[in-house]
Amino acid sequence: MKTSWMKRQQHLGYLFIGPNMIGVILFFIIPAIYSFYLMFTDYKFMSPDTKFVGLDNIQRMLGDEVFYIAIKNTLMFLLSVPVSIGLAFIVAVVLNRSVYLKKLLRALYFMPYITSGVAVAFVWMLLFQPNNGPINGILRAIGIANPPGWLSTMESSMYAIDIIWIWFMLGYNMIIYLAALQEVSGELLEAAKIDGARTWQTVRSILWPLVSPTTFLLLITGLIMSIKQFGIIQAITQGGPGNSTTVLSLFIYQNAFRYYEMGYASAVSWALFVIIMIFTVVQWLGQKRWVHY
Amino acid sequence: MNKAVFNKSLITLVMLFLSIVMIVPFLWMISTSFKTPAEVFQYPIQWIPVHFNWSHHVKVWTGENSFGLYYLNSLKVSVLSTIGAVTLSSLAAYGFARIQFRGRDTMFMVYLSMMMVPPQVLFVPKFIMFDWAGIYNTHWALILPGLFTIFGVFMMRQFFLSVPHEISEAAFIDGAGHFRIFSRIILPMAKPSIATLAIIDFSWHWNDYENALVFLIDHDLFTVPLGLQNFILENNVDYNGMMAAATAGIIPMIIVFLIGQKYIIEGVASSAVKG
């Protein structure tokens, strides 16, 4: 009697998960399978006949000049991830032990992350105005006669996007580092002090190695998060000037919804999936080896 | 004053200065929204305008496409999505964390693998499916998928796993079933986690530009990010107006952040370190 009741209780598991599972099937699993099928077709929105084209889309991708530009831009965009992590580490170390007003400072550094989105992107667009924007105004005032054109030239546009993204991610990385640094025992640091270790020695040879699992985690999750990002870039530059800020995820979006080349866009989106999968596998392998807490 | 206190004060000042640099885009935005066109790019920067000019804010809030409408649209989408997402992911997380049943771990692996699929893979098929189902270019195209968050399931599961099993076992012996344990015991304990998830989820939906961009075309359906983009396209030389519009887009998030700061910061920290 009691056991059959227990058994019935276990079946309730399906009821708990069911509603969510329906959504995951409808909005994740079925679209994913559908997209996988579309990759092998020449599907275009509103065009009546869709043919199965085998590997044509993949071949087209590998021969598409813009695809390689997008890969290059994506790599340049991803450069912002380690830079942001490095800066966040420094800020977190300083905030962790040697300041007053720690909570206020933490909130201020974190603010860009929570207010993310296109609104901030448009503010940066004006800040970066090449002729008379405030950033170049300041640069000229401190004696730089020919400041960069930022978002307006092909050479500098990707760096300008990087700066925005570093600024945006800094607070997030800092919060995670602060949480990790709290786990580091104060005794260890006191011992180092007694040994006469200089501050930067303590940081370099004690703190940095101790938080290495966190650094690794931030690096991988940051790369994955950034490679999927296209909203800010679409809002500010739409990938331009030229194709100079067309990153892979934006390339997919534009093929799908500007040119309605949806079969082709699906193929490229699976290339993006493969990259994310590689990052994820590296994370699993790395976690097994690195995690020692 | 001893040396340690002096050093600490000095470092605090330096960090305070740098933190101001971090939020300078917001300050410049607000300041510009109150200036006249001639003052926008004046150098040195006049941080506090000589005369507060409200006309740009009036334009943003009363024009043909008013931000009032965008706010209502965003609120509708964000609130409905968030309520659904928090409810459904708490239920699912309880199932994954505290009930043993056949197929559970396989289902969880499916969830795990779906986290790797980028939104770019799903946009095209969702676009076709929504068009077919007649919800393309309606708010349902944002709300319905918004009810389901895999991240939310992970986060709540993490919390439910940390609740000692003895608590459920004692309730079991008293004859309570899973629904009663969930609603009377576990859920009340999870209030802080629920608050965190609700705030993070709300901010996602409020800031969500990409889904709105793909699934909405009618102006009167626009959420705040799209409304903002539209405003900027139509007023691309009116820098003061642009910044007034950006201010309108950002202020709600700043308010949410100030109210829920504790939950947001702790939630973000714990989700990454434990996950």
Structure characterization notes:
Chain B: The chain crosses the membrane at residues 12-30, 77-96, 108-128, 140-160, 181-200, 241-260. Chain B: It is found in: Cell membrane. Chain B: Belongs to the binding-protein-dependent transport system permease family. The complex is a heterodimer of chains A (293) and B (275). Chain A has 293 residues and is mainly α. Helix content of chain A is 74%, strand content 0%. Chain A has a single domain, classed as MetI-like fold. In chain A, helix 3 crosses helix 13 (248-257). Chain B has one domain: Orthogonal Bundle (MetI-like fold), CATH 1.10.3720.10. Chain B starts with a helix and ends with a helix. The model of chain B has no long low-confidence stretch (mean pLDDT 89).
Features:
heterodimer; A: 293 residues; mainly alpha; MetI-like fold; 14 helices; 74% helix; 0% strand; globular; B: 275 residues; 76% helix; flat
* Structural class category of chain B: mainly alpha
The largest β sheet of chain B comes out as: none
Order of helices and strands of chain A: HHHHHHHHHHHHHH
Total count of strands of chain A: 0
Number of separate structural domains of chain B: 1
Relevant CATH superfamily of chain B: MetI-like
Spatial shape of chain B: flat
Q: Please report the distance between the alpha carbons of the first and last residues of chain A.
A: 45 Å
CATH-defined architecture of chain A: Orthogonal Bundle
CATH class of chain A, named Mainly Alpha
Indicate the proportion of strand residues of chain B. Answer: under 5%
CATH topology type of chain A = MetI-like fold
The value of Rg of chain B in angstroms is: 24 Å
Order of helices and strands of chain B: HHHHHHHHHHHHH
For the record, what is the CATH homologous superfamily label of chain A? MetI-like
Shape of chain A: globular
